[in-house]
Amino acid sequence: MAKITLKNLRHSYYTNPKGPQDFALKEVDLDWQDGGAYALLGPSGCGKSTLLNIISGLLVPSEGQILFDGNDMTTATPDQRNIAQVFQFPVIYDTMTVRENLAFPLKNRGVDPATIDQRVYEIAEMLEVTDMLDRRAAGLSPDNKQKISMGRGLVRDDVNVVMFDEPLTVIDPHLKWKLRTKLKELHQRVGRTMIYVTHDQTEALTFADQVVVMELGEVVQVGTPVELFERPAHTFVGHFIGSPGMNVLPAEIKNGVAHFYGHPVELEGPIKEGTSGKLEVGIRPEFVGLGDTGIEAHVRKVSDIGKHTVVDVEVGEHRVSAILNGAPPAKGDIVHLQFKPSQTRLYADGWLATDVVPESTATGEDAA
Amino acid sequence: MALVLNNITKVVRGVTHIKPTSLTLEKGHFNVLLGETGAGKTSLIKMMAGIDPIASGTVVMDGNDITKLNTQKRRISLVHQFFVNYPHMTVFDNIASPLRVAGMSKSEIEGRVGEAADILKLGPMLHRRPHELSGGQQQRCALARAIAKDSQAVFLDEPLANLDYKLREELRELLPELFADRGAVVVYATSEPEEALLLGGETALMVDGKVAQFGPTAEIYRAPSSLMAAQVFSDPPINHATVRKQGSAFHLGEVSWAAVGDAAGLTDGDYTVAIRPNHVLPNVSAEARVAVTGTVGVTELSGSESSAHFEFGDNGWVSLAHGTHPYSLGEDHTFYMNTDACLYFALDGNRVA
Amino acid sequence: MKTENQKAWFFVLPVLLLVAFNALIPMMTVVNYSVQETFGDNLFFWEGLTWFEQILRSDRFHAALGRQFMFTALILIIEIPLGIAIALSMPRKGFWVPVCLVLMALPMLIPWNVVGAMWNIFALPDIGLMGYFLNHVLGINYDMTQDPVAAWVTIITMDVWHWTSLVVLLAYAGLVSIPDAYYQAAKIDGASNWSVFRFIQLPKMKNVLTIAILLRFMDSFNIYTEPFVLTGGGPGNSTTLLSIDLVKIALGQFDLGPAAAMSLIYFAITLLVSWLFYTLMTKDDLN
Question: Which CDD domains match (chain C) (predicted)?
Answer without folding.
Answer: TM_PBP2
